[in-house]
Design goal:
The complex is a heterodimer of chains A (about 260) and B (about 325). Chain A has about 260 residues and is an alpha/beta fold. Chain A contains 9 helices and 10 strands. A 6-stranded mixed β-sheet of chain A has the order 6-7-8-3-9-10, with helices on both faces. In chain A, strands 2-1-4-5 form a 4-stranded antiparallel β-sheet, covered by helices on one side. Chain B has about 325 residues and is mainly α. Chain B has a domain of about 210 residues. Chain B contains 13 helices and 2 strands, in the order αααααββαααααααα. In chain B, strand 1 and strand 2 form a beta hairpin. The longest helix of chain B is centred in the middle third of the chain and has 27 residues. Classes of the chains: A alpha/beta (about 260), B mainly alpha (about 325).
C-alpha cells in the first residue's frame, strides 16, 4: 500500500550549514510516528519542509504517492496536510469557535458576493460551518470555551484550540510540533491522551518531540534525527538500547 | 434601537437636503465622499496594512472619468465605474507585488506609487499637466445637467450608500472575516497552513479597497468640475489614515465616525483659514494617547451586531495593532 508520507533523501542546506542530510523514512496509514532528536537535530527543519514552509535543497516529499515537494503551505492544506506550531499560534483576537471556522473555510468556496448579498444559501452554509466547529470543539472537550477570546484562554486550552484549527481542515496527515511543550504534566497528559486515542482515529500523525518518554509511551514508531541524519527508525522500545541514540542524547537528562 | 437610529439618519439624508443651504449641501457632499474613502482604506487597515498612498488610486479614478468625459465624450455615468475599475486594475498589479511587504515597507511602497501617479499627471500634457483638467462636466439626469448642489448631492448619496452597504456587508462575510486572520505575519502563516491563499485574499482586498476609492474619486472630480494633481495629494492619503485612527479600527463604524466628525470639522476650519492640519494633528494625538482604540472604543461592547447575526458567534475583537 502507498505510504501516506514518504521522505525521500531530503537534504537542506542553509548557507554552509547542512541542517538535513539525506533523510529517508515513510509513514504508513494510521500510524503515530514520533520524530525525535536533541535540539538542533533538524526536526523542525524537516517538519517545515513537509508542511511546505520552504523547499528542501534536494530530495522529495511524497504524499499519497504524489510529489508535493514544491507545493506551498496553503496548497498542502488542500492535499490533506495540517500542522500545529511549537509556539502557540492562533488568531488571538478571535474566539475559539472563530478560530476553528478559519480552518473550516477550505471546505466551502469564499463566494464573497453571495455573502455581501446575504443569500439564504450562504447563511445556511454559515450555520452548518458553525455547527461543525462547535462539534469539533466538543470533540476535544473544550466546547464550553467556544465564545471565549482565544488569546485569553489558559495555555493548555489554547494548545487544544490550535489542534482544533488544524483538525478543522480534515487532514489525512496531521503534523504536531511538540504538543506538550510548555504544558503542566496534567495538561500534557490530557493532550497526549487525546492525540493517541480519538485524534489518531481521524488521521495519520507525525509528532515532533524531544521528550523520549512521551514518544516511548504514545508512539507506534520513533524516527531519531541527530545532526541532520537519521540514526534510528523503529519501535520506541528499542530506543534506550540503541547505542547511537544513547550517545546522541548523552549528557541530556530525561532518557527513559 | 440601532436600526431605528439608522433609519432616521437615512431619512434625514434623503429628505432634508431640499431644505438645506448650498453650503450645508457642500459639507454633506464632502463628508460623504470622505466617508467612502475612509471605509475603502479600512478594508486593508483591517488586515493590518497601512497605506500612505490611497490618494493615488483616488486620483486614478478621478482622472479616468474626467478624461473619458472631456476627451471622448463618454457618459459620466459610465465614467464613475470606469474610474473604479482603472484604480482596481492598478491596485491588482501593484498589490500582487507589494502586499508581500509588511509594515512600513508596504506603506512606503504605496506612498511611492501615489507620488509616481501624481508626477505622471503633472508631467504629461494629455493629463493636463500641473493645471489639471478643467471643464469636467456634471452628469445628465432626465435631460438636465446636475449643476446644482442639490442634484449632485443625490448622486453622491446613492454612490456612497451603495459603497458603504457593500463594504459593511463584506466585513461580515467569510471573506472579510478571513482578512482578520492575515493581520500579522505570524497569523498569516497559520492561515496559510489551514489552506487560505493569503496572497490572493490580500490582493482581492486591496483591489476592492481601491475600487471604491477610485469610484468615489471619479464622482469627486465631477463634483469639483476639475481635477488636478494638487487635489489628490499625500495630505489626502494621511487624512484618510487619521480618520481611521481617530474613529478606531475595531469596527466598520470607527472610520465612519472618524471621517464624519473630522471632515465636517475640517470643512469649517478650511473656510476659516487653513488650521485643518493643526487641528487634525492635535485630535489624533489626543485620541492615540487617551483612547488607543479610537472613538469607537467607547461603544465597543455592542460592535459587529451583523457578524453575530451571520453566525460568527461572539463579536470578533479587533483592536488596533499597537
Amino acid at each position: 500500500m502507498t505510504p501516506v508520507l514518504a521522505i525521500r533523501g531530503i537534504t537542506k542546506q542553509f548557507g554552509g550549514l547542512t541542517a538535513l542530510n539525506g533523510v529517508e523514512f515513510t509513514v504508513e496509514l494510521g500510524e503515530l510516528v514520533g520524530l525525535v532528536g536533541p535540539n538542533g537535530a533538524g526536526k523542525s527543519t524537516l517538519f517545515n519542509i513537509i508542511a511546505g514552509a520552504f523547499p528542501p535543497t534536494s530530495g522529495r516529499v511524497v504524499l499519497h504517492g504524489r510529489d508535493v515537494t514544491h507545493l506551498k503551505s496553503h496548497d498542502l492544506a488542500r492535499h490533506g496536510v495540517a500542522r500545529t506550531f511549537q509556539q502557540v499560534t492562533l488568531f488571538a483576537e478571535l474566539t475559539a469557535l472563530q478560530n476553528v471556522l478559519q480552518g473550516l473555510h477550505r471546505h466551502v468556496p469564499a463566494r464573497f458576493l453571495a455573502g455581501v448579498l446575504g443569500s439564504a444559501g450562504y447563511r445556511r452554509e454559515q450555520r452548518d460551518l458553525e455547527g461543525r466547529g462547535q462539534r469539533l470543539l466538543e470533540f476535544l472537550g473544550i466546547g464550553s470555551v467556544r465564545d471565549e477570546v482565544a488569546g485569553e484562554l489558559p495555555l493548555g486550552i489554547q494548545k487544544l484550540v490550535t489542534v482544533a484549527v488544524a483538525l478543522a481542515t480534515e487532514p489525512t496527515l496531521l503534523l504536531l510540533d511538540e504538543p506538550g511543550a510548555g504544558l503542566s504534566h496534567e495538561e500534557a497528559t490530557r493532550m497526549m491522551n487525546l492525540v493517541s486515542t480519538v485524534i489518531r482515529e481521524r488521521c495519520t500523525i507525525v509528532l515532533v518531540e524531544h521528550n523520549m518518554r512521551i514518544v516511548s509511551r504514545y508512539c507506534d514508531r520513533a524516527v531519531v534525527l541527530h545532526f541532520g541524519q537519521k540514526i534510528y527508525d523503529g519501535a520506541p522500545e528499542g530506543l534506550t538500547s540503541d547505542q547511537r541514540v544513547v550517545d546522541a542524547y548523552l549528557g541530556v537528562a530525561e532518557l527513559a | 434601537m440601532r436600526q431605528a437610529a439608522l433609519a432616521l439618519v437615512l431619512l434625514a439624508l434623503v429628505a432634508l437636503p431640499p431644505l438645506a443651504e448650498p453650503y450645508i449641501l457642500h459639507v454633506a457632499i464632502v463628508v460623504l465622499i470622505n466617508v467612502v474613502y475612509a471605509e475603502g482604506l479600512y478594508v486593508i487597515m483591517r488586515m493590518g496594512y497601512l497605506s500612505f498612498g490611497h490618494a493615488g488610486y483616488i486620483a486614478l479614478g478621478a482622472y479616468t472619468s474626467a478624461l473619458l468625459s472631456t476627451e471622448l465624450g463618454v457618459s459620466v455615468w459610465l465614467g464613475f465605474p470606469a474610474g473604479g475599475l482603472v484604480a482596481a486594475l492598478f491596485a491588482w498589479a501593484l498589490g500582487a507585488v507589494t502586499l508581500k511587504l509588511r509594515g512600513i515597507y508596504f506603506s512606503l511602497s504605496v506612498f511611492a506609487f501615489a507620488e509616481v501617479v501624481s508626477a505622471a499627471f503633472r508631467a504629461f500634457d494629455v493629463f493636463g499637466g500641473p493645471a489639471g483638467i478643467a471643464g469636467v462636466p456634471r452628469p445628465m439626469f432626465l435631460g438636465t445637467r446636475l449643476n446644482t448642489h442639490l442634484g449632485f448631492y443625490y448622486v453622491v448619496l446613492v454612490t456612497a450608500l451603495v459603497s458603504l452597504v457593500f463594504l459593511y456587508r463584506l466585513g461580515a462575510t467569510r471573506f472579510g472575516f478571513t482578512l482578520l486572520s492575515l493581520r500579522t505575519r505570524h497569523t498569516e502563516i497559520l492561515a496559510e497552513s489551514v489552506g487560505i491563499d493569503a496572497a490572493r485574499y490580500k490582493t482581492l482586498a486591496f483591489v476592492i479597497s481601491c475600487f471604491f476609492c477610485g469610484l468615489m474619486g471619479a464622482v469627486h472630480g465631477h463634483y469639483l468640475r476639475f481635477v488636478s494633481p494638487f487635489v489628490f495629494t499625500f495630505f489626502l492619503s494621511t487624512d484618510l489614515v487619521i480618520y481611521n485612527m481617530v474613529g478606531g479600527l475595531g469596527s466598520f463604524w470607527g472610520p465612519l465616525v472618524g471621517s464624519v466628525l473630522l471632515t465636517a470639522l475640517g470643512e469649517q476650519l478650511f473656510a476659516a483659514g487653513y488650521y485643518k492640519s493643526l487641528v487634525y494633528a492635535v485630535v489624533l494625538l489626543v485620541v492615540i494617547l487617551a483612547l488607543p482604540g479610537g472613538l469607537i472604543q467607547i461603544t465597543r461592547a455592542r460592535e459587529m451586531g451583523a457578524a453575530r447575526r451571520l453566525g460568527w458567534g461572539k463579536a470578533p475583537v479587533t483592536t488596533a495593532e499597537r
